[in-house]
Design goal:
Layout: E1 14-18, E2 26-32, E3 35-44, E4 58-65, H1 77-80, H2 85-99, H3 104-107, E5 111-120, H4 125-147, E6 159-167, E7 170-173, H5 177-180, E8 185-192, E9 197-204, H6 211-235
Parallel strand pairs: 4-5
Antiparallel strand pairs: 1-2, 2-3, 3-5, 6-7, 6-8, 8-9
Helix pairs in contact: 2-4, 4-6
Domain Exoribonuclease phosphorolytic: 11-140, 159-223
Subunit structure: Homohexameric ring arranged as a trimer of dimers.
Binding site for phosphate: 86, 124-126
Amino acid sequence: MRPSGRNLSDLRTVSIETNVTKHAEGSCLIKIGDTQVLCTASIEDRTPPFLRNTGLGWVTAEYGMLPRATNTRNRREAASGKQTGRTVEIQRLIGRSLRAGIDRSALGERQITVDCDVLQADGGTRCAAITGGWVALRLAVNKLLKAGDVVSDPIVDHVAAVSCGIYAGQPVLDLDYAEDSVAGVDGNFIMLGTARLVEVQMSAEGATFSRDEMSSLLDLAQAGVASLIDAQKAAI
């Protein structure tokens, strides 16, 4: 029995509320169980220097957690003067994932920054950030299309992510913190709407895993991502 009472293949309850901030070109609040992430997308008419005069656009991301997003207070990274390695790794992952669903030539020489701020953490924050970040990105691009600033839609596919792992010897979908903190194997799966893989992060957390177990986790992830994409479609 999972701590939440869910079946092995059940996602937590998912909700995505759009246009939750006034100023950002795209925004949403995504809730997956007790994990809550505010995602905003901001459009700038500039690109990083390495893309100047290439005709290509850029999508990047920043990620952070509020001090009481977890059960104990974490010091703000700004107060220490630098980001942790975990924060840098996660925001790079979000940026890579979202770029996988973008035609950068269709975007033109502009940058869209997706900010993902964790209001409350209960496992799977990076996956929620990617899934919600795509919705914010979609809404921002819709404004570009409506204004005629881009000729063709730069977004070529959905991008969503879900965690899977081996908990109490069983492959399970969408780990919450109670499961993630003791799981023998932990993985994050990022996929397109076509079910093509963008990235897989898997590691043994005290117990190794077989190729068959990895295949089981991949099957769970594919079904979970399909459900998350349905939630994205409903939100927009």
